[in-house]
Amino acid sequence: MKLTMLLDKLNYKTQQDISSIEISSITADSRKVKEGALFVAVVGITVDGHDFIREAAAGGCAAVVCEQGRGEELACPVVELADTALALGELAAAFFSYPADEMTMIGITGTNGKTTSTYLLEELLAGNGFYPGVIGTVNYRYRDVRYPASHTTPDSVTLHGLLREMADNQVSHVIMEVSSHALSQQRLSGLLFDLALFTNLSRDHLDYHADMNEYFAAKQQLFTHCLKPDGKAVVVLSAGDNDKWGEKMLAGLTAELGRERVLACGSDAEVGVRNFSCGINGIRAGIITPQGEFQLSSPLVGEFNLRNLLGVTGVALGLGITTENIDRVLDRTGSVPGRLERIQAGEGEGGPAVFVDYAHTPDALENVLSSLRALTPRRLLVVFGCGGDRDQGKRPLMGKIAARLADVILLTSDNPRSEEPQAILAAVEQGVKREKCPRFSALEQAEFTGKGYDIVESREQAIATAIRLAGEGDIVLISGKGHEQYQLTSSGKTFFDDRLQAKKQLDSVTCQRERKWN
After folding, report:
1. What pLDDT is stored for residue 423 in this prediction?
2. What span, in angstroms and rounded, lies between the C-alpha atoms of 374 and 280?
3. How far apart are alpha carbons 344 and 506 in whole angstroms?
4. pLDDT tens, 452-471?
């Protein structure tokens, strides 16, 4: 494609004649430059692409795009413009012939609930004859194609290339998890959404954002900068202290977009709920909508999942799906990978109910523990830790929440990354101690029937210990990593899957119980 065509919608300056320049690929990584590539120098968090302009030119790129005043004299043409991060998405969209324009685009942002919402919407759309594609935390997928997810929201070039692939394979709707990082870094430039969903906001990523207001402002950009002129917004109003962010989002979008383009979802909102119950086998609720009421019977567990169901119902209504067809599909839509996913032994009965969940923020951990506590287990056991090189302030908060809501707490390693696991666990332990929770030695006791906590650094050992300590009528929550199939330490990345570990231990304990009974 000619460079001038790629630059057609951008304001730029160049001293060279670029009318005959042909571009074969686009990249912001000088290591990926090939003959005929367009190298875009972007200022990143830790690396400035302008420092690699000469390297890119030496690699054979056809032209360089850089920010104003930062051009150099090179063998290839240099194009200067105001904001290369913003331009990268526009250039990628043009290079791939604006694939987002050929599909219905749905964006989902919020601290928790994004992944669950994508799975529910995917099932809803597929169950109503559409062909959805998903770009999210677990993977990037459409039809029978699956790609591992490098980021929740990929970089601009990868994103538009993937959208082109989806459009060429007759995908009708794209459901995308949109992270605050992606919005702050303008990775979504070059595309607009038909509809966007706000799930909730609670403490997370404060190692990246200065405070909660900045975090909220980043999320808000999905609706104020990335919606089509006639695009619709769906806002979930959460319960409790975090409701202020949903209310703030609703008020701001109502003023910005007009009330007719905004749909609120929550207990007493336009998409609301009547006479609900949440048990270990699922959710039963009357769902109230502007189109009328329907009775929902979902296999999902937990009151927070009821809010996810309300948000997804709002999106479906915005897409023109009837309440009858919403109810028909959601009634049979089951668990989401690593989101309060029930793990069961291969054979035998009895023993504890074991769940794996991705909850890695204070609010998410409180939500899932509160939901499980509401199921009135004999005891509630939780295995969790906190990630390294991330917001340190949430560590004691999560410890305190666990000690308040669970009976037995086993603190363990999550993804420590470059940090010492013991230092992370000590910070979480501070919160546990504030609740006057006593420590016991989990590894030395064959049984423990009281309330207490212990630190078991090995995650494999902590999972095994929790399932060994639990019995009939107990619930075990293994929290923090969910669908992840790895653990990140200072030594690198190793394979680890909470679900496989839990299944292995459950099978082992079940066999031991059967031998004992026989």
Report:
1. 98
2. 9
3. 7
4. 999 999 999 999 999 999 99
Cα(first)–Cα(last) distance of the chain, in Å? 73
pLDDT at 518: 43
> So what's the pLDDT on residue 514?
55
Instruction: Determine how β-strand 132-135 pairs with β-strand 139-142.
Output: antiparallel
Nearest alpha-carbon partner for 402 in 364, 447, 444? 364
Among positive and negative, which fits the CA dihedral 113, 484, 383, 377? positive
Residues 81 and 67 in one domain: yes
> Domain check: are 160 and 269 in the same one?
yes
Phi, psi of 36 (to 5 degrees): 90, 5
370 and 258, same domain (yes or no) = no
User: Rounded to the nearest 5 degrees, what angle is found at the Cα of 202, between the Cα atoms of 201 and 206?
Assistant: 110
Mean pLDDT over each residue of the chain, to the nearest integer: 94
Give me the pLDDT at residue 511, please: 67
- By C-alpha distance, which of 307, 308, 261, 266 is closest to 289? 266
Q: Is 399 helix (H, G, I), strand (E, B) or coil?
A: helix
Residue 247's pLDDT is 94
pLDDT for 485 beyond 60: yes
Tokens of 250: 């609703």
Residue 68 phi/psi, 5° resolution? -55, 135
pLDDT of residue 517: 43
Residue 39: inside a domain: yes
Predicted pLDDT at 33:
96
Q: What is the CATH number of the domain that holds 109?
A: 3.40.1190.10
Instruction: For residues 351-361, give the mean pLDDT.
Output: 94
Rounded to whole angstroms, the Cα distance separating 10 from 209 reads 29
Return the bridge partners of 27, or none.
Answer: 39
Tell me the one-letter amino acid at 354. Answer: V
User: Residue 375: CB partners within 8 Å, gap ≥ 6?
Assistant: 278, 279, 280, 301, 475
Radius of gyration (C-alpha) of the chain in whole angstroms: 25
| Collapsed DSSP state (helix, strand, coil) of residue 447 | coil
In a domain, 336, yes or no: no
Q: Of 52, 72, 95, which residue constitutes the final position of a domain?
A: 95
CATH code of 401's domain: 3.90.190.20
Residue 309's domain spans which residues? 99-330
Asked if residue 308 belongs to a domain, the reply is yes
Q: Write the single-letter amino acid at 14.
A: T
SS3 171: coil
Instruction: Report whether 293 contacts 287 (CB < 8 A).
Output: yes
| 149-204 per-position pLDDT tens digit | 988 899 999 999 999 999 999 999 999 999 999 999 999 999 999 999 999 998 88
Q: Three-state DSSP class for 20?
A: coil
235 neighbors 249 (Cβ within 8 angstroms):
yes
Phi, psi of 59 (to 5 degrees): -80, -5
- Asked if residue 335 belongs to a domain, the reply is no
Structural domains counted in the chain:
3
| 430 and 458 both lie in a single domain | yes
State which of 306, 330, 354 marks the end of a domain. 330
Q: What pTM did the predictor assign?
A: 0.90
- Cα(337)–Cα(83) distance, integer angstroms: 38
